[in-house]
Amino acid sequence: MSELSVNHLLGIKYLNKKDIELIFETADHFKEVINRSIKKVPTLRDITIANIFFENSTRTKLSFELAEKRLSADVINFSASQSSVKKGETLIDTVNNILSMKVDMVVMRHPNPGAGIFLSKHVEASIINAGDGAHEHPTQALLDSYSIREKLGSVKGKNVVIVGDILHSRVALSNIFALKLQGANVKVCGPRTLIPKHIESLGIEVETDLRKALDWCDVANMLRVQNERMDISYFPSTREYTQQFGINKKLLNSLDKQIIIMHPGPINRGVEITSDVADSKQSIILEQVENGVAIRMAVIYLLASKI
Ligand code: CP
Question: Is residue 135 within 8 Å of 114, Cβ to Cβ?
Answer without folding.
Answer: yes
